[in-house]
């Protein structure tokens, strides 16, 4: 099957799955693509999907990109989730170079001088490497998070990384996410309770004040709105 035929088949499945529940989509994903992984950032959407995966397919691989620049609360959320779900298969994925090596090569605080380069080194390159081992991946993106995600399908072919991509909660709202967290007593990052609706690296994430766009706290003051993982 060539790329065109594969994309056509996936587009057909996307239409069929559009009204399916996130749980139904996850079940379809893990049954259709056993060699699948879930990218977890420990944000509200992703902890929901971890909970669903643990109920549906607890042995499915879950990885996270450790940029070395996460908030301490993010690492603490990871540890609390590991306690909540014993045996959870978290896989740590790190950049090829350390923060010190990055500073030596590109100068101090690269995230200020060239945020795209910093994201490429610490996120995109490690993601490309880990995804090359799989035939499909699951993400927690939602359509109403940003204009760049407005057309996300529940299932689509990820041309950038060359594999099938599932977005089970693409049609959910923030309220849907938090209703699930409350109803299922899901562990979540406490920064969400302190005006951090979207949490990335500590250097590039600030609080979002009432009335601001939920992603206004990411790369504040720059035109950048995505780290390059979901374009």
List keywords for this structure.
single chain; 231 residues; 40% helix; alpha/beta; 6 strands
Q: What percentage of the residues does DSSP assign to strands (E)? A: 5-15%
Instruction: Tally the beta strands.
Output: 6
Q: How far apart lie the N and C ends?
A: 24 Å
Tally of helical runs: 8
What is the helix fraction of residues, given as a range? Answer: 25-40%
The gross shape turns out to be globular
Query: Which regions are unreliable across 5 or more consecutive residues at pLDDT < 50?
Result: none
Measured on Cα atoms, how large is the radius of gyration? 17 Å
Look at the structure and give the mean pLDDT: 90
SSE class: alpha/beta
The biggest beta sheet is recorded as: 6 strands, mixed
Element order: H for helix, E for strand: HHEHEHEHHHEEEH
- Give me the side-by-side strand order of the main sheet: 3-2-1-4-6-5
GO cellular component, one term: cytoplasm
Enzyme class: oxidoreductase
Family: Belongs to the PAPS reductase family. CysH subfamily.
Domain Phosphoadenosine phosphosulphate reductase: 36-206
What can you see in these coordinates?
This protein is of the alpha/beta class. Helix content is 40%, strand content 10%. The protein is built from 8 helices and 6 strands; from the N terminus they run H-H-E-H-E-H-E-H-H-H-E-E-E-H. It has a 6-stranded mixed beta sheet, sandwiched between helices. The longest helix has 17 residues, at 115-131. The radius of gyration is 17 Å and the shape is globular. The relative contact order is 0.17. The model has no long low-confidence stretch (mean pLDDT 90). Pfam families: PAPS_reduct. Belongs to the PAPS reductase family. CysH subfamily. Pathway: Sulfur metabolism; hydrogen sulfide biosynthesis; sulfite from sulfate. Residues 36-206 form the Phosphoadenosine phosphosulphate reductase domain.
């Amino acid at each position: 099957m060539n790329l065109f035929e594969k994309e056509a088949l996936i587009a057909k499945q996307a239409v069929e799955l559009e009204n399916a529940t996130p749980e139904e989509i996850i079940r379809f994903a893990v049954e259709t693509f056993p060699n699948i992984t879930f990218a977890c950032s420990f944000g509200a959407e992703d902890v929901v999907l971890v909970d669903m995966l643990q109920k549906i397919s607890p042995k499915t691989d879950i990885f996270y990109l450790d940029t070395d620049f996460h908030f301490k609360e993010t690492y603490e959320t990871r540890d609390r989730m590991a306690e909540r779900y014993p045996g959870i298969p978290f896989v740590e994925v790190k950049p090829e170079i350390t923060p010190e090596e990055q500073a030596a090569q590109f100068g101090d605080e690269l995230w200020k001088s060239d945020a795209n380069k910093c994201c490429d080194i610490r996120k995109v390159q490690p993601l490309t490497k880990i995804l090359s081992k799989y035939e499909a991946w699951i993400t927690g993106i939602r359509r109403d998070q940003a204009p760049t995600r407005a057309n996300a399908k529940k299932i689509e072919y990820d041309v950038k990384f060359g594999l099938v991509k599932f977005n089970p909660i693409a049609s959910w709202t923030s309220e849907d996410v938090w209703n699930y967290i409350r109803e299922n007593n899901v562990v979540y990052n406490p920064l969400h309770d302190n005006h951090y609706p979207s949490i990335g690296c500590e250097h590039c994430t600030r609080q979002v004040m009432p009335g601001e766009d939920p992603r206004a706290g990411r790369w504040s003051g720059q035109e950048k709105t995505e780290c390059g993982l979901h374009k």
